[in-house]
Each structure stands twice: as structure tokens, then as C-alpha cells.
Amino acid sequence: MNKVDEIEEMRVKNINAYGSFLGNRWLQLIAAVVGMVMIANLQYAWTLFTTPLVEQLRSSLTVIQYAFTLFIMFETFIQPAAGYLLDRFGSKLMFVIAGLFVGFGWSMMGQVNSVSGLYFSYALAGIGAGIIYGGCVSVAVRWFPDRRGMASGIIAGAFGLGSMPFVPVIERILESSGVTKAFLSTGMLQGILIIIVALILRYPVGSKMPNKKEEIAKLDQSKIGFSPMQMLKTPNFWII
Predict the structure, then answer these.
(1) pLDDT of res. 83
(2) pTM: predicted TM-score of the whole model, two decimal places
(3) Which helix (H) or strand (E) holds 30?
(4) How many CB atoms lie within 10 A of CB 166?
(5) d(Cα 230, Cα 46) in Å, to the nearest integer?
(6) What is the distance between the alpha carbons of residues 203 and 226, in angstroms, rounded to a whole number?
(7) Cα-Cα-Cα-Cα dihedral sign, residues 177, 178, 184, 187
(8) Exposed/middle/buried for 219, CB within 10 Å: 0-12, 13-18, 19+?
(9) Which among 141, 148, 123 is positioned nearest to 28, based on CA atoms?
């Protein structure tokens, strides 16, 4: 069976399983893009909030900026565990949890009255962002085994450019209503849209990593990639 036939077979299987709407791989890619856009503000719009937070919490810029360090740490280090949980429990449950973390964490950053509260809220949002980032890439490349580079590039681009339309909106909210309203309104929007994305996203039929070792051993590794332990044994992983 050639590549074209494999893709057509995958398309038919997913339409039969999910229907013509949810079984459309372009819809799945768009949903993943929306998910990435909803976490872009957490990283790239942060600088808009630093000065208002310094004033609100009566702290220094250096102390406030440590919150961003914690966000990056949690967003990054959670991804190996998030990838395992996504394979085990699927994208719907994990994205709903991530949406709650992102929405609650980001919204609460404007409600807290202490630096420790800010750190906790931003770290919580970082965990949600890490789940979304890894999950969106994972879903996208599985739906596009013939265009993995394109799919992963679009997803990465959505994260990098996702904050652009929000920056002027956030600036206006900060000027008119203050930092509390800016965090709350954007946090609720992001959390709700991520949960909607969770209801749309699906792994394509047959692509979810099985849990049992004997089932994994029977799979064609060239089609599903490497298991975590196989990945750790490759020099490419450590070089990257």
C-alpha cells in the first residue's frame, strides 16, 4: 500500500469513527491552532502586566519577574509527563484539565495580593500551557503523517504569533479597567476556548499509544515513532 492509499484509508476510518465533521483532519489542525493561540498570551503578553503588578503588589520588578521564570520551568518540565498522560487518557480529559489550569491560573494572577500567590497562579497556568503545547503538536502530527513538518510548523507558528491580536486589546483593558480586569477577562476567554477545543480534538483512529507492553511490541515502530525508553536510547534526543 502506497502513502496515498494509507492516507485515504486513514481518512475513511476516521470519518467512520468520528463522522465527517470531527473526522476531518483539517478541522483537527485548526482546533489545535486555536489551542496554541489561547496559551500564547501566557508567555508573550506577560511584559504588559509587569509594571501594573509591581504597583499592585508593591514589590520590585526583579521579584515579579521570577514568576515568569517559574512559568517557563513548569511549562517545560511538565511536558514529558503530560505526553505520557495524553497517551494514556487521551486529549479530551487532559485538555479540559489544562483549560481549567490556564483559565484559573491566569485569571487569579490579577486577584492575588501576595507575590507567593502570583507565583503559584502563574506556575499553575504554566502546567496547563505545557499540556496544551505538547498535546497540540502530538495531535497535529498524528493527523498529518504525510506532512509532519507542515503540521508542526503551523502549530509552532500559532504559538509564536498567537498573542499579536490580543496585545492591543490587553493594552486597552489595562488602561481603562486595570490589571485585575485584564487578567480575568483574558483568562476566562482562554480557559473556555481551550475546553471547547478539548471537545473537538481527537487522536486519529489507531494512533493512540497502547498501554500494554505486548501490544506496543506488535506495532510498526516506523509509523508510530519511538516509545519513551527507545527515544532515550537515541543520540539524536540528547543532541537536541
Answers:
(1) 87
(2) 0.84
(3) helix 25-44
(4) 20
(5) 37
(6) 17
(7) positive
(8) middle
(9) 141
Give the 3-state secondary structure of residue 143: helix
C-alpha to C-alpha distance for 57 and 51, rounded to whole angstroms: 10
Cα–Cα distance, 49 to 103 (Å, whole number): 16
CATH class name, domain 26-208: mainly alpha
Grid look-up 481603562 returns 176
CB distance 65 to 154 below 8 Å: no
SS3 46: coil
Torsion over CA: 179, 109, 161, 62 (sign): positive
Mapped to the 3 state alphabet, what secondary structure does 189-227 carry? Answer: HHHHHHHHHHHHCCCCCCCCCCCCHHHHHCCCHHHHCCC
Higher-confidence residue: 205 or 5? 205
Contacts of 27 (CB under 8 A, 6+ apart): 21, 200
What residues have CB less than 8 Å from 233, skipping those under 6 apart? none
pLDDT at 1 over 80: no
Length of the chain: 240
- Tens digit of pLDDT for each residue in 203-234? 998 776 544 455 445 555 555 566 677 888 88
Q: Where are the domains of the chain?
A: 26-208, 209-240
